[in-house]
Amino acid sequence: MRAVLAAFAANLGIAVVKFAAFLLTGSASMLAESVHSVADPANELLLIIGRGRSRRPRSEELPFGFGRERYFYGFVVSVMLFTVGATFSVYDGVHKIVSPEPVRSPVVAFVVLALSAVLESFSLRTGIAEANEVRGDRSWVSFIRRTKAPELPVVLLEDLAALIGLVFAFTGVGLSALTGNGRWDGAGSVAIGILLATAAAILAIETKSLLIGESASADMQQLILDALEDGPELSRVIHLRTVHIGPDSLLVAAKVAVRPGDTAEQIVAGIDVVEQRVRAAVPIASTIYLEPDIYRPSQADRTDPSIRAALRGRLSRRRGRAVPPGRAVPPVNGGPARPPIPPEDAP
Prior knowledge:
This protein is mainly α.
């Protein structure tokens, strides 16, 4: 939340200064930037509210808790506030292009824009530092697309859009002052609106996917598979499904094969041990459902392709070579031999 709070403080101060500059200059670009800067702290406030509400204890009506409240408020930020800011900026810019007005006191606008750039840069620097702690070796595009926490992408895109918008505003005001043509100022406002609409579209797509329900990352699914099968309790995993019920909460459901001769007590005890192993490997796996089954060769065609691909990748890392499609996967922990991997499932 440090990045969110830093962005909130910076944007609140920027909004006050920009509105004062708009009143002095009458610039359309400054008005667009002012509306954008008012929307920004409202964005952070919604993210803070969503994070607080997501921590409420689960209820009878919502047995999996309120973790997705964070996704909902992130979606509201992307669709409502960004879109409202973009619409207003484009409308005001078009109005100033049709009915141009000269920019008064452009020096005031330049000073305010420079100060805003400093504060936005501070906020963006804080967001980058927070993101680097969880980004790992992923690219920034991959991080924005794959992260399960909505706050950091919102703050990063918001601050980046703000800095680019400041360049548009500086250009619009500068060209208006040099040429005496107020249409340049209106064009700067339109450019800011298009920029905000683009940022809104990106965030809406990503937060919508989280809101619907995304699975765990490939690396996390691999950890779950290892934890399920790296012990004598189970012979294999037949199906595996995961879904995030919040950024810090994961639902794991799997159909697992047990030995035909095991008693009910042995199966229950083994499943308890496996669940503990999964939670140790993936602490956010808060809810785990394992369905025991007896593996039969006829189930080969129904085995989850993602499971076969993950097993093939794991064996490749362990032995330094891949398992070719069509060749049987060796057994694990004394269990039955796995069926051949069909060529269509090859990576």
